[in-house]
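TOPIC: backbone geometry
CONTENTS: sequence, structure tokens:
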Amino acid sequence: MERVSKKQFYWPILGHRNVLEYLQSLITNKNFCRTYLFSGPKDIGKKTMADYFMQSIFCEKYNCLDEKDKCFPCGVCVSCIEAKKHIHPDFISIDLEDDKKNISIDSIREFKEKFYLTPIKSIYKVAIINNADHLSDEASNALLKIIEDSPKNSVVIFISENPDFILPTIKSRAEHIIFNSVAKDEIFDHLKNSGLNSDIAKELSEFSAGLPGISIYYSKNLEHWEKYKEDLRNILEIIDNPVNDKFKFIEEQIKLSKTYPNQYIYFDNLLSIYSRFARDLMVYKLNENIDLIHPFLEDVISKISSKYDSIDLLDFYKKIIDSKKMLYQNVNPKIIFENLLLI
């Protein structure tokens, strides 16, 4: 098998060492599957990993045998620059459209037209399907036919938070790469080494709960972090507020969601916030010595958890999971949140 020279890969990714080394070995040996499924929670690093994988495939120094070219992808060739900006002519991406809850069959038809064209600059064609768990049934079946008959030297990467929602026949044809949580200590060390204050690094590493994307974003936007902590306090305290306040809060969230590009993703993110709260409420109820995700909200967490028994808190968590499913099943978000918060 033809091999490229041993290169010093430059993929500045926090954690996921086993995934990183495996994908880099595929680059080195030019030994690709045609379809991959990257799965794991939001902000865990799936998209970042897919981007560096794609950039490395397109890098113009891919086939260069000069040992001086050790930084890979080089980041300076035209193909690297285009790939980083997602404008490389041989790269295709699909994403959830604004204010749509599913990826439509029309998006897949447009994708198919581009996917079967002969590569222009590279010998490879690379496609990334974001939010793959939001493919409509029609779109899923159309994509299945495409990957069953994918062109030579093509690579398709599905990115998903909920792989159980992906068509089983698509999953069976993809190499499934699971992204697991990154150790809190590893995130803390990274933040400290980047020059962050120890106290803030500790706070962000705890809040990240193993999702490095969260800590990295807020470490670079500390003013947003202080504002977000106050927003989180308000979102948590509503659980303990009177019913009228809860209705008012829900109405405010409905209005706010309409100012965002995708209303469904807005509510999905809000439900994710509540699932993290539910974890802390249960942890505090069962064992106060376990680290909280929100140590800066311990006063509110202590107050609320004392009012409910562990079964009630577990039921609250289950309702959040069910709410996420209902969100993409034509259930009105207002009804979902009234059902969730009127506990």
Notes: Residues 1-5 have pLDDT under 50 and may be disordered. The first strand starts at residue 8 and ends at 9.
